[in-house]
Amino acid sequence: MDYAAYFAKHREEHLEELKSWLSIPSISALSEHKEDVLKAAEWLVEALKKAGLENVGIHQTNGYPVVYADYLHAEGRPTVLVYGHYDVQPVDPLPLWKTPPFEPDIRDGKLFARGATDDKGQLFLHIKAVEALLKEEKDLPVNIKFCIEGEEEITSPNLPSFLEVNKEKLAADAVLISDTSLVEDGVPAICTGLRGLCSLDVAIRTANTDLHSGSFGGGVPNALHALVELMASLHDERGRVAVDGFYDDVPELSPVMKEEFDKLNFKEDKLKAELGLDALYGEEGYTFVERIGARPTLELNGIYGGFQGEGTKTVLPCEAHAKITCRLVGKQNPEDILDKIERHLLSHAPTGARVSVDKREKGNPFSIDPTDHLLQKAADAYEQVYGKRAVFTKDGGSIPIVEAFSRILNVPVVLMGFGLPNENLHAPNEHFNLHNFDKGLLTIVEYLKRI
Amino acid sequence: MDYAAYFAKHREEHLEELKSWLSIPSISALSEHKEDVLKAAEWLVEALKKAGLENVGIHQTNGYPVVYADYLHAEGRPTVLVYGHYDVQPVDPLPLWKTPPFEPDIRDGKLFARGATDDKGQLFLHIKAVEALLKEEKDLPVNIKFCIEGEEEITSPNLPSFLEVNKEKLAADAVLISDTSLVEDGVPAICTGLRGLCSLDVAIRTANTDLHSGSFGGGVPNALHALVELMASLHDERGRVAVDGFYDDVPELSPVMKEEFDKLNFKEDKLKAELGLDALYGEEGYTFVERIGARPTLELNGIYGGFQGEGTKTVLPCEAHAKITCRLVGKQNPEDILDKIERHLLSHAPTGARVSVDKREKGNPFSIDPTDHLLQKAADAYEQVYGKRAVFTKDGGSIPIVEAFSRILNVPVVLMGFGLPNENLHAPNEHFNLHNFDKGLLTIVEYLKRI
């Protein structure tokens, strides 16, 4: 079968279909869009039915529903579970959009709309790939299941329990997700690692009230001094996290991984120039991509205390606050890391300061061995279509649901992305490059045929 | 003459008069009270005329006017210049006032009103003391000048230039100010030192935009890390300011001064309990009163950067801010200190961080030798009236105008206060204890007769 010809023939029709889905403002974070989110789920049901999938249905959760569909007629063949999401990010600031976020517009070979690449556009490729196979071959080379949620952009609060409850229904040999990106145009990538995440808020209190710096300055603890001293104690002079035991469960970089990172041929100078930085900074002894891909972090995301207005206020503030997140790798456990940080903070509390810690989010790191045959087959499929074999990357971000699939269904997760890093995810003017739309369709067909 | 009898006889009348002045909401900080501030100046003109003073007049400045009056008929005798202010602090939060701030109310032997002690009530004592002397003796034992401003609560922006221009008109042998307080009830005090002040804002910038902590965390500078590291570098582990040369012009505590501080018999445990503190904190080797009275400080008054909302935001902030004030002593020069701090901050800038410094306020420290005969005579007057000799204190606060009088008119400044530390200056329910009102009148008469 010539799928290139097939997709070329149906291109207009496919794009019109996708545009109709992108026109639905399914913003899960904003309750005023509740009807729109549900409408996007219904649209999806119809699209899956039209593609020829079976058992298409809407499954309620405590939040937005999960859309499920399957086609299980390839006896003795592996089962692939496709995950994606039909909800999208908010669109603020609206004035920065060149065309309205929910009036999809194609220009310069790109499709502009909220959700164009994250994730409606990428998910749509899977639906159309399956539709093509069913139309052209009246059958699929694998068993396939779709499990599509509507709460990814609000941290998937209900999906893990949905996976637990429906473990058997969702059982598969691989989970396939297209919600990541190529390294750069023409260089396909398969993400083999995502960092975990944990977060905490720190509060420092000194006196029972703010004090006048004339009457008390120099003689009583100042919550801001305590805060900067305590926060500065969290890193050492080599850029390492100075919390006891923080690196206990962090694997050293293997020569194989180092080689994969080197293959990326990352240009640190270019990044510096783009960000307007005099210097990059991080843990001594690692390159930028190694730091992002394979090393854990402890980052201050916010600090505040005392007077923030114009001019001068001679106050000794009695409270100060910091917000911290860690990115985790290897076998680091978020609970354990939060405990270790809390111990550090309490045991390093400066004189006269009471420190309290509020532990918040917890997500495990994810990683998969690039030599897994399902990943190698994905790299083969990319090579076939792109003329270039996919590199195996590690992403610094956290997609907790990936780790949840891997852990709850106990199955390899293949992150096969077709976006590009500069397609304005979560920002104004989100778009999807249509040559990757085209190649994505072919790559998925190729992949399903190869496994 | 029995001035005790005289003041007892006129007490009702005096208090009614003061209450009428206190009823005028002369809040200099709020432009909607402009007419009230001017009305308070006019009230003052009438009161000075009624007291028998001459050359009473309103002198324009670029802001609120200065009220001047004199009585210069004591040939060969010293001249005393009385300074005070007719403006008051704002009254927020209004609901915390038990009686309205501009409806003066006497209860439990205290006069409650905004300005009751700061400074209308205390300044009023000088007017009535002079009035009493002129009525009873038809003459004054000294030459006297009044120079009363209406902008003290907004940092006296126009008074220094008024002093410069009117140097000769205002020439005197002593400046007498009642705008401070006793150590505690029954323990009179003469303040012989006020700390200077300088302030600066610090801004730190890293990348040209906030960055996502997943994609960049651990590989680029974080403005908050740079801020806490830089701010923590400003003090050493002994609580000393770690800026090169900061202590160059700070005199060591003399045995005489140490003795004066010891005389205060300050209870550090009581303060700790009042403030709800586990521990006091400051420069190693000094007591609380020494730290406040005789040592300089560098204090953070505010810090902020990044996310301050609820929940977690995985952001690497690209800017961070701190607001700093220093209290200065001895010969420390605010310009010089600001330069030294700037040098420290720039030379300690963490990797990848650009530091900028905005220098703001500058005020010199003030101090006077307690053995000055004018101060000794003031202590004598207190002893006569209170039955207890005044102690010589150093106040940690800054009243820049005191240093300005001392420097521009080149004359000793006698800080002879009658307030109490807990009379809610600048706070709701400001009040003046009337037994100190009574004793204040007598002490001033006594002082004018003795010099």
UniProtKB/TrEMBL annotation, chains A, B:
Pfam families: M20_dimer, Peptidase_M20. Its EC number is 3.4.13.-. GO terms for molecular function: dipeptidase activity; metal ion binding. Transmembrane segments: none annotated. The lineage of its organism: Bacteria, Bacillati, Bacillota, Bacilli, Bacillales. GO terms for biological process: proteolysis. This is Dipeptidase. SUPFAM superfamilies: Zn-dependent exopeptidases (SSF53187). It comes from the Bacteria. Keywords: Dipeptidase, Hydrolase, Metal-binding, Protease. Residues 193-351 form the Peptidase M20 dimerisation domain. CDD domains: M20_dipept_like (cd05680).
